[in-house]
Structures are given as C-alpha cells and as structure tokens.
Known about the structure:
By secondary structure, this protein is of the alpha+beta class. The protein has 13 helices and 17 strands.
Amino acid sequence: xxxxxxxxxxxxxxxxxxxxxxxxxxxxxxxxxxxxxxxxxxxxxxxxxxxxxxxxxxxxxxxxxxxxxxxxxxxxxxxxxxxxxxxxxxxxxxxxxxxxxxxxxxxxxxxxxxxxxxxxxxxxxxxxxxxxxxxxxxxxxxxxxxxxxxxxxxxxxxxxxxxxxxxxxxxxxxxxxxxxxxxxxxxxxxxxxxxxxxxxxxxxxxxxxxxxxxxxxxxxxxxxxxxxxxxxxxxxxxxxxxxxxxxxxxxxxxxxxxxxxxxxxxxxxxxxxxxxxxxxxxxxxxxxxxxxxxxxxxxxxxxxxxxxxxxxxxxxxxxxxxxxxxxxxxxxxxxxxxxxxxxxxxxxxxxxxxxxxxxxxxxxxxxxxxxxxxxxxxxxxxxxxxxxxxxxxxxxxxxxxxxxxxxxxxxxxxxxxxxxxxxxxxxxxxxxxxxxxxxxxxxxxxxxxxxxxxxxxxxxxxxx
Length: 464
C-alpha cells in the first residue's frame, strides 16, 4: 500500500530522471534493510518465490544491484520484497505500487495464485536488464508465461527513459513511457489512461489485450481505449484511500490544478508549474495533507482529520527516491517520512553501511531502521513539544544531503566507473555516520525531556 511519484528529466530541476515510492505495510513494524547484492539470487538459473512458490527460469549471467528487502525471522517470513534497486548498468526498478483490477476483467483473467508477486519482482529483473525498456519487456514476458499473483504497478528508469507498468489481472498489462517534460503520481489504483496501439515507441502492452477486451465487451468508452476505465476501479474506498493522495501531490506541483480530492478522473500524468526538485519529491512522500483541514496532526475537526488516508504514515517502512545520473543516487528514508530524513547513497559501491544493511528483526537502535522508528514515535507522540526542532533537524539534513552529493560528485572527477567503488563505499559510510549521529543526539534529548511529561506526577516542594 504505497504512493508513487515519477519525474521526467525535462521536468526536474537537475535534469535527471527520478522515480520514487513509499513502502507502506499493514504491520506497524516490518524491518527493512538496504543492501548491495553482488549477483543474482537465482540458483542454477531458477528463482523460487518464497511467497507463491513459483519457479522462474532466468539467465545465468547476472549483475550486481542494490535492494531494500525485508528482515526475516523464525516467526516472520513473507519473502524477499527487494522493493528498490539500481543495478550496475544504471537501471532502476521500484516495485510495487499495489493496485486492483475490477471484477469484470478479473472474471475473465483472474490472478494466478502461484504466479509472480511483489516479493520477487526486483530480484528477477535487476540482475539482468540493461535498459528500463528491456526491464518492462522482460517482466511482460514473465507475466504472460507465469501469471501475476496480484495487481501491481512497477516503476522503471535509466538515464534516458522512465516507464510505468500496470498489471491488474493474471496475464494482461500495459506500460507507458513518461514524456520527459511531465511528472506522474500513482496512489494504489489503476492510473494509466489512454493507450495508442499505433505507438509502440511509447506504449507496451500484453499480447491479445485488445482482443480480450473486445471479446468480453469490457470497454465502456465508445471511441477510445482507456486502460483505467476498462481495468480500474472507482469505489468508495478509492475516494477515501487513493484519489486524495494524487490530489494533494498535483495541488502541490501545479498551482492551476482545480480538481477536488475525490474527483473521478484525476490525471496520472501532468505538467508542473515549475521545475521539480528532489526535495519536492521528498516533500510529497513525506506529506500528510499539510496546511489543509485533512492533516491528521493539524487543526481540522476529528472528522476532517480522519477523512482521507495520508501519504506519510506511521506504517511507512521505507521510502526511496532513485535519482538517475552517471553516478546514480538512492535516497533512503526509514519509518514515518514526515519526521525522518532522506539520506543520499551512491550505488556504485562494494557494500552499504552496516547500520543500514544488518537490521535486526528485534528492536535495536544501533541500526538505522529502528533508530528512525523510535525517533518517529517520539516526535509524533510529543508533536507540540518537539515539532519545531524536528523541522529544523530535517531542514539541516536536507541541506547536508544536497551539499554531500555535490562534494562527492566533485571528488568523483578524479575517478571513473571502474575505480570509484571503494571511494563511494567509504563516502556512503561517512554520510550515514553523520546522519545517524545527529539523529541519536536529538533523540536522546527528546527521550530525556519526555520523561518529565508523565501524568503520574504532582507539583512538589524541592525539599520533600
């Protein structure tokens, strides 16, 4: 249950393609790691999903890539869920944006129980693909062969292109190439709209999808093929849970956007009123209807504050912003993004910082995931007391992150792709240490001061 933002390079402030997503879960805690995978996890060319048991044939030659998998234990294991990757060929994959096909299309192409699901997608694509388009095409072939176990949206990017793919049924899908001067927002529903079957440069689709729709009389429109209208939903749940998130993001990026939070046809793609920065993307993924009556920690009525599902949640486990460049960056945030920072990590490395890599299943604030989970809790539960300091902390770390990226890129002028890995591994460790030290210092202050907020207290004479 996530929120997706994609930004084309002509729409971004730095001229880079950006794909980004929050990973939210049903559980309050679902510990995550940030790791560097040296080669494919498939054994002898076969990848078996822990979740659905599907066995997928894959190439034997593979590449390294980053990933953000679950931490598993003896009592909790739902599979890998790699979620966010950039591989050594500079191809980024973020999966998935959960979505739902409607009952009409699922009647004729039901989901496949032992098919491909979110737990496997990053690990069956990232080690093998050399372009974003190739990743779409590879996943399409695998879905047609093995079927999909659930409705999913997947983000793909390289330095030149961004693709967004939606799989609402067992075997049918479409993908659209993002126009480079536009951005897109996807909030847990089928979003892709009109498909031009005469334009295979900008659209990819499953074999037989037109015939499938025609055979079963599924298209409600007379003259167009609108994927959202045919395959998607617009229910009361969508109006409460999904469309309002897209509304808030569009409202933030486009001052001329005039649709309401429950509008039926909120667009997937749009043009912003300005160039979009990395910080803009991070703000959207950290937002909770800020400065509106719908903010759950704002000043609206209880009915207003609980009307819509916000983007940033206490159940956000991790968030990532993948910034595509010659030396690409994986910005990583853990826990409630409204209160925690995005940290820039270069991906051409030999490993990731141990505090991000070795997360334990049980709470241990040595590790970034747990540190930020506890930090978020203290800010939220003492919001009136700690919010100003939290805001300043986030501003300071946004400035640090931008400055850090600049400094490292300047130093990279003395390196190349073949000899930069040790240097970037060390630089990532320096970045992580700075952010974690600053977080621990502020958290210690919050925890100490929170001790005096107990209701089990009374005004006392200092001599008693």
